[in-house]
Amino acid sequence: MKTPTKSHGRLSISASPRPRALMSDRPELQGAWTAKVITLFPQAFPGVLGASLTGKALDDGLWRIETIDLRPFGDGKHRNVDDTPAGGGAGMVLRADVMARAIAQAAEGTPDDRDAWPILYLSPRGKPFTQATARRLSQCQGVTLICGRFEGLDQRVIDHFAIEEVSLGDFVLTGGEIAAQALIDATVRLIPRVLGNQASTEEESFSDDLLEHPHYTRPATWAGHDIPGVLLSGNHGEIARWRREMAERLTKERRPDLWRAYCAAHGKDPEEDAEL
């Protein structure tokens, strides 16, 4: 058994039939932000979330992920989780009774307050997932995510459990697992200490209804292209002004919807400064 090199803080307390070491490579820290994922493919997790900074934060216990396999909650010999749509039509629909049993297991040890612990269903008809949504979720105790499959989820379970529907964009995926990983990644990186330099999250795209400004690094000249001189000037005031102007220009050109939101928040006329 490898000897741990550091203490990770106070462990969470939970009932378990097996004793648990006080220190481990992946501790369960008390109060750590937790994602509970209901899925037919638990083996898909943590996936890319186990790599890079999110993976390190997972190993350090800054956040946790728990998968709940939907299949064991299914009915009959074959553990069926879906059935034909009421009223006819193509495809299959995830059953409300089956999903309710999985949600009940996911709810163990979580608060009833939806503001503290939301339940989200990854669905192409949901509200768009934004940076503001990620920030809100990062301030919760955790979140339960339902990965859809087939034609979708019985509406009755959505209504009964006050489930939020969230969409990554105007496209359709085979299932919600990829979307769930993207949502978790966007949220976890906002948890303090995950990125190390929290200031970087304040300057990136969507943090102020603006796209991020362009970035450059050495060499100063590459393939006949130079780094903009202002970035090499050492004048931090001018650099900040240039970056803001470039962010405004890119946002106005590429995302008129964000540009209008930015102008509304800052009392600007979106039709002014046509040539930034």
Can you give a write-up of this model?
The relative contact order is 0.11. 28% of the residues lie in helices and 15% in strands. It has two domains: 156 residues, Alpha/beta knot (3-Layer(aba) Sandwich), CATH 3.40.1280.10; 62 residues, tRNA(m1g37)methyltransferase, domain 2 (Trp Operon Repressor, Chain A, Orthogonal Bundle), CATH 1.10.1270. About 6% of the residues have low confidence. The longest helix is centred in the C-terminal third of the chain and has 19 residues. By secondary structure, the chain is of the alpha/beta class. Helix 3 packs across helix 5. It has a five-stranded parallel β-sheet with strand order 2-1-6-5-7, with helices on both faces. The chain has a two-stranded antiparallel ribbon with strand order 3-4.
Task: Give me a quick take on this structure.
The chain has 276 residues and is of the alpha/beta class.
Give the arrangement of secondary structure elements.
Elements: E1 33-39, H1 52-59, E2 63-69, E3 82-83, E4 93-94, H2 96-106, E5 119-128, H3 131-138, E6 142-147, H4 155-160, E7 164-167, H5 177-188, H6 200-203, E8 221-222, E9 225-226, H7 236-254, H8 256-265
Parallel strand pairs: 1-2, 1-6, 5-6, 5-7
Antiparallel strand pairs: 3-4, 8-9
